[in-house]
Design a protein that fits this description.
With 626 residues, the protein is of the alpha+beta class. The chain has 19 helices and 22 strands. It has an 8-stranded mixed beta sheet, covered by helices on one side. Strands 15-14-17-16-19-18 form a 6-stranded mixed beta sheet. The protein has a 5-stranded mixed beta sheet with strand order 9-10-13-11-12. α2 (27-49) crosses α5, α8 (373-392) crosses α13 (468-475) and α17 (576-587) packs antiparallel against α18 (589-607). The N and C termini lie far apart (112 Å).
Length: 626
Amino acid sequence: MAKQQFKAESKRLLEMMINSIYTQREIFLRELISNASDAIDKIYYKALTDEQLVFNQDNYFIKVTADKANRTLTISDTGIGMTRDELENNLGVIAKSGSLAFKKENEAKDGHNIIGQFGVGFYAAFMVADVVTVTSKALGSEEAYKWESEGADGYTIVPCEKDSVGTEIVLQIKQNTEDDQYDEYLDEYRLKAIIKKYSDFIRYPIKMDVKGQRPKEENAEELEEYTEEQTVNSMVPIWRKNKSELTQEDYDQFYFEKRYGFDKPLKHIHISADGAAVYNAILFIPENTPFDYYTKEYEKGLELYSNGVLIMNKCSDLLPDYFSFVKGMVDSEDLSLNISREMLQHDRQLTLIAKNIKNKIKSQLQSLLKDERDKYEQFYKSFGRQLKFGVYSDYGANKDVLQDLLLFYSSKEKKLVTLDEYVSRMPEDQKYIYYAAGESIERIEKLPQTEMVSDKGYEILYFTDDIDEFAIKMIMNYKEKEFKSVSSGDLGIESDANDNTAENEESGTKELFDSMQSLLTNRVTKVKASKRLKTHPVCLSTEGEVTIEMEKILKAMPNSQDVKADKVLEINVNHEVFQSLKDAYGKDKEKFNLYTQLLYNQALLIEGLPIQDPVEFTNDICKIMV
């Protein structure tokens, strides 16, 4: 019979399919198995309305057979089969899918769903095969037909013999080249791995003849090879089971089997949504941080299935960045897939699912925080930093989602507390949420700037992560309470006797402070009497949005710009050091200059800032010791 040509547009599409569309050749097997599953589904649908047709699920399966000697791979099914016209229409015209038409006709019936919708997956077979032969006998027909093609040049359809209803696809696997090893698609273990990866949850058995070894009956010490037919897919996915049927061990085992992590999941979320977006999902909150989590190499995303068939290993669109630590999968029959079935169209269904998942994750974390605080703190130790990055990113657009999940160490409670817990304890006269930033809790506790706030009895939140202050700047205020650094120029605390003394002293020593500021030109913006210091002689405070800790972090970044905090040198006028400073100012200007430099360098050391000239600083120390 003369070879028939593909339609012109179909020929171009086939050439593109073979050469470029799919980035992973192994998905050809997923496509052919999905088509076989569709064919069995179609018999199931017909049985719903045809009383003469009995659907006994035990009679329906898919068989994958590799023949290394002849370099053929066969995928056969016991499905509905195709007539000559169906072979012509479904395989002769690319992107005209019989499954899609059938689905439209039967979409109101039982919950079985046709996977293949776009009629292009079949042609993925040409990525690994020189010749594709399809032999099919349709249900209710006495005749069978063979469709055969070597690719874009065309195809033939001829009558043939076939005993049973169904379809058999034989791929003549390509020879190996220097760049490509096609032998892998004839290897039993490789084929099993591909089936488990993409088609494990197809609802019908996928069978293979599997080789093994066993002791001989006549001599148990010797082994003999044997071959037996095995079902290699699981068929019933855990996410389609009722939650009441499953135990924690079932979920943990699924986590390990899918290799979502080497730890034990801290919590799982099982979603069965049936509304605007219909989907099933199992999500896991890991216990520990993956080794590459805070690196560029880490790839977020959930496994995405369409009706039990893996479409994407990592669908990043299903998770916001701030919840990128979540592992798991989503299975939906409603998602639209484009021509390659690898790329997901960002349609309304995906957006609805992603929004729902985000809300479910937040709800689970809030429950964990409320009911299992120890577990939440364990989670927060691993991923709290990511939540803070989420608050900071996108100019604070996600702060309302995340702010109630944040924890900070409390000066009063000596443990991690939420912002809500802090605000609930605030005295009526406290205007601000006070915080102090530093490298560690121990360093912060020794900061002179905390004295005045602590003496007022106010709680202080300790910020020890480099992202903390940046995140808080995005939140700005919580429950109408503004955040205030203890190093801020204005703490907003009512004046007391100490403040009045400072005011009076400052007015009497303006020239002294002006002289100090002149000596420290370009290093501090102001020198003033401190209202916050009690026992310490000196400290640095800041004016403006950039704090000293923020300056340190920004300077440590690659390609950092010269961002500086506007530093103010504060002197405790009630400290004996100030008296020495005054005496030197009136009697010995050289000593006054020395004291000014020492006090400034002391303030830098307290903040963990580098001293410009350490040698000069040690020489200055020696001068006052002589």
